[in-house]
Amino acid sequence: MKLYTSSFAPNPRRVAMFIAEKAIAGIEPVLVDLAAAEHRSAPFLARNPFGRVPALELDDGRVLCETRAICTYIEGLHPQPNLMGEGFDERAFIEMADRRVELHLFAGIANCVRHTHPGLASLEQPQFADFGASQGEKMRETARWLDQELAQHPFVAGARFTIADITAYCALEFARGLMKFKPGAEGFSHLQAWRERMAERPSAARA
Ligand SMILES: N[C@@H](CCC(=O)N[C@@H](CS)C(=O)NCC(=O)O)C(=O)O
């Protein structure tokens, strides 16, 4: 299998962290240079017409896109350690947490950065600075919610490490770099403490 991926991009990082947690070897990384617009080249668009990374090319030639779908596939191939839930009950609650984080925290950060940061202007045209700023505020509302969740349980979805921690961690790392967002400095002490614990995991190291 080949994983089309990019340096510094948060969605590929989610897949990389997921793979590292499972200690899987043998998936060949293929770097796609977003700054050079390689993801908009004809060969890449033939693999993913949406022009986004990550994309997982299977051995039979099919291409699986969308970070969560790629993780579902990898979890099926390598069930342990389980990151997406054992059985329908746990799977549903982990998915709820993961999608809340993805749709409200991760997307808010991505929209804020894409619409306000000059470095992202080549990817996001037109940029709407007011929209980006408002997304940054809404993302902070989600950070407040998550801070309160983490006051009650040690991981995003509850008692154990799951895909929801990976999604939240990669989102916050992107915000730390490009929005200078530091949860502790904004009063989210539980979120900051969780972030420090996540950063100690070997899977959190950049490849
Ligand atoms: N919904 C997609 C989003 C993928 C995505 O937006 N990837 C970014 C990198 S983190 C990208 O490829 N950006 C290129 C662009 O915006 O042109 C997923 O879950 O994988």
Compact description:
The protein is α+β, with helices and mostly antiparallel strands and 207 residues long. It has helices at 10-21, 42-47, 67-77, 87-116, 129-152, 163-178, 189-199; strands at residues 2-5, 28-31, 55-57, 63-65.
Explain this structure.
The protein has two domains: 2-77, Glutaredoxin, CATH 3.40.30; 87-204, Glutathione S-transferase Yfyf (Class Pi), Chain A, domain 2 (Up-down Bundle). The protein has helices at residues 10-21, 42-47, 67-77, 87-116, 129-152, 163-178, 189-199, and strands spanning 2-5, 28-31, 55-57, 63-65. Helix content is 53%, strand content 7%. Strands 2-1-3-4 form a four-stranded mixed β-sheet. Helix 1 (10-21) crosses helix 6. It has seven helices and four strands. Bound molecules: glutathione (GSH).
Produce the secondary structure layout:
Layout: E1 2-5, H1 10-21, E2 28-31, H2 42-47, E3 55-57, E4 63-65, H3 67-77, H4 87-116, H5 129-152, H6 163-178, H7 189-199
Parallel strand pairs: 1-2
Antiparallel strand pairs: 1-3, 3-4
Helix pairs in contact: 1-3, 1-6, 4-5, 4-6, 5-7
The protein binds glutathione.
> SSE string, helix = H, strand = E?
EHEHEEHHHHH
Enumerate how many helices there are, as a single number.
7
Q: How are the strands of the biggest sheet laid out side by side?
A: 2-1-3-4
End-to-end separation in angstroms reads 18 Å
What labels describe this entry?
alpha+beta; Glutaredoxin; Glutathione S-transferase Yfyf (Class Pi), Chain A, domain 2
